[in-house]
Design a protein that fits this description.
Layout (H helix, E strand, L loop, with lengths): L1 E5 L5 E8 L5 E7 L2 E9 L5 E7 L2 E9 L5 E7 L2 E9 L5 E7 L2 E9 L6 E7 L2 E9 L3 E8 L2 E10 L4 E7 L4 E4 L6 E4 L4 E7 L16
Antiparallel strand pairs: 1-2, 2-3, 3-4, 4-5, 5-6, 6-7, 7-8, 8-9, 9-10, 10-11, 11-12, 12-13, 13-14, 14-15, 15-18, 16-17
Subcellular location: Cytoplasm, Cytoskeleton, Flagellum axoneme
GO cellular component, one term: nucleus
Main location: cytoplasm
Length: 214
């Protein structure tokens, strides 16, 4: 069903409202029969998109409300989260940063609501990757990440003023054989922290220069 403006060719063109065969509805702008411009699309699942369209696809700035209560607000390209955007997850976590083909990719900040921790740094295809800083309430880790895990050299910086340098070492994968199956299953083991040295806390005192004697 469609109610709205049309052009001389009879195509949906201008402002209009439509109900699709699957029950979804669209209220917004059309151009030559396609959703184009600003509009609101409501899904039967309860999801909702408010933003820009180009040739029937979400393209430009828009907000998507998901059925689970999560929300994305930012750039879209050809129906994909692409560019810069802020995603608020159902559990209260949030991510603000770069997106590429629907995934977190580039530079961004992820905040964990429950712990208050914050990851600031690189992302690769949805996973934490590259140089980053993981900030906790009273200390932080600075180093490299790979597939969501810290990897290689890095350091912990504590609010007390000391640092612990070291590296994350990846243990050998554990092979497990099932009782009924002869196939071996490889269990991925998280990397372990290998500390090298800890710097002492040094108190800084300003040096006062004595005035020159006359």
């Amino acid at each position: 069903e469609y109610e709205g403006e049309r052009n001389v060719e009879g195509e949906r063109h201008g402002r209009g409202k439509a109900r699709l065969p699957n029950g979804d509805t669209y209220d917004g702008e059309y151009e030559h029969g396609l959703r184009n411009g600003q509009g609101t699309y409501r899904f039967t699942s309860g999801a909702r998109y408010i933003g820009e369209y180009r040739q029937n696809k979400k393209h430009g700035q828009g907000i998507f409300f998901y059925p689970d209560g999560s929300k994305y607000e930012g750039d879209w390209v050809d129906d994909q989260r692409h560019g810069y955007g802020v995603y608020t997850y159902a559990n209260g976590d949030s991510y603000a940063g770069d997106w590429f083909n629907h995934n977190r990719h580039g530079q961004g900040t992820y905040i964990y609501k429950e712990s208050g921790s914050k990851y600031v740094g690189g992302w690769i295809n949805g996973n934490q990757g590259g140089a980053a800083e993981l900030i906790h309430l009273n200390h932080r880790f600075q180093g490299m990440f790979l597939n969501g895990y810290p990897m290689g050299p890095g350091k912990y910086v504590f609010d007390s003023g000391c640092e612990q340098r070291g590296e994350y070492v990846h243990p050998e994968p554990v092979k497990e054989t099932g009782e009924e199956e002869e196939e071996e299953h490889i269990l991925l083991v998280p990397p372990k922290w290998k500390a090298a040295d800890i710097t002492k806390v040094t108190l800084w005192t300003p040096s006062v220069e004595q005035p020159a004697s006359p």
